[in-house]
Amino acid sequence: MRERINTFNLYLRRRYGCRVQRVPVNLGLGCPHREGRTGRGGCIYCDETGSGVLPADIPVEEQVKRGIAFAERRYGARLFMVYFQAFCNTYAEPERLDELYRRALFDERVVGVIVGTRPDLLPGQVVEVLKGLSERYEVWVELGLQSSHFRTLRLINRGHGVSHFVDATLRLKAAGIKVCAHVILGLPGEDTEDMMETALFLSALPVDGVKIHCLHVLKGTPLEEMYRRGEVRLFEMEEYVDVCVSFLERLRADVVVQRLTGEAPPERLVAPLWCLEKARVINAIRMRLEEVDTHQGRKCPFSQPPFCANLSPA
Ligand code: SF4
């Protein structure tokens, strides 16, 4: 089967010549948005774990050691990227962040650092800290955007604007840091055209990567209340596959697609339950690309590499 998506695995193999495994680390820094600094109550889909799976009370060094040992055993990985995933990993004084990040980087097989955060939480001094790390490591910052439409950001209570994302992206890129945007497909109030515009918006910016998620409802969130009141309609799997393929077609061919569907622990997921079958969803997206003989970037009108060697020409 020809490659039709510029995946993170392809990117890493091209760059490092082998598998590079992400090692998640929970710094336990929390989120200012959940604490009321930028809004009230956090994003409507976020539960109390903030996408983190590891307990933050385990020392950073120990989390990295365990993560590397697991990735070696399970995947035979030889190189690693430390992934600060849960909540907002730039939510501390720059000096403290620098210390925390560097404590996680003791193993010489670590080649990269991934920092997840909000686009309105990147003051200049924090960007300088990240720039310092980028002298030795490949540094990615994952920014939650979710949608390029302000009315949607307001509805899902993101607490920041589209402008914050543009500002953060441009400043990070100027500092030599790679940017990966998180996007949710199927947000309330959005139609297919809205989601396609988000793909084009990202393609028009110097964004390096995208993580695509399907809207899912977690227990104990405001979104669950909306869902139970019948205010939110969720995608069937086939619908998601179609929208995702159209989204990929409008995404620049050189943007690294780091995720095609989100994950949720079964005990916290309310709906849709097909989200639990991640491999099936990814396979269905790949099959659909084959069926309609298309690929990432095919409908992107913005400047792209003349030919992305790993993607099929139309
Ligand atoms: S910014 Fe992230 S951690 Fe904070 S409420 Fe939103 S999704 Fe949750």
Structure, explained:
It is a single chain. With 314 residues, this protein is of the alpha/beta class. The protein has a domain at 8-213: Aldolase class I (TIM Barrel, Alpha-Beta Barrel), CATH 3.20.20.70. Helix content is 36%, strand content 17%. It is built from ten helices and nine strands. A seven-stranded parallel sheet has the order 1-2-3-4-5-6-8, with helices on both faces. It has a two-stranded antiparallel sheet with strand order 7-9. The longest helix is centred in the N-terminal third of the chain and has 16 residues, at 60-75. The radius of gyration is 19 Å and the shape is globular. The protein starts with 7 loop residues before the first helix and ends in a 23-residue tail after the last helix. 42% of the residues are buried. The mean pLDDT is 93. Bound molecules: iron/sulfur cluster (SF4). Iron/sulfur cluster is lined by residues 31, 33-34, 42-43, 46, 50, 87-88, 118, 144.
Write the layout of secondary structure elements.
Elements (H helix, E strand, L loop, with lengths): L7 H9 L3 E6 L34 H16 L3 E6 L9 H10 L6 E8 L6 H11 L3 E9 L3 H6 L6 H13 L3 E8 L6 H13 L4 E6 L2 E2 L3 H7 L8 H13 L6 E4 L9 E3 L6 H14 L23
Parallel strand pairs: 1-2, 2-3, 3-4, 4-5, 5-6, 6-8
Antiparallel strand pairs: 7-9
Helix pairs in contact: 3-4, 7-9, 9-10
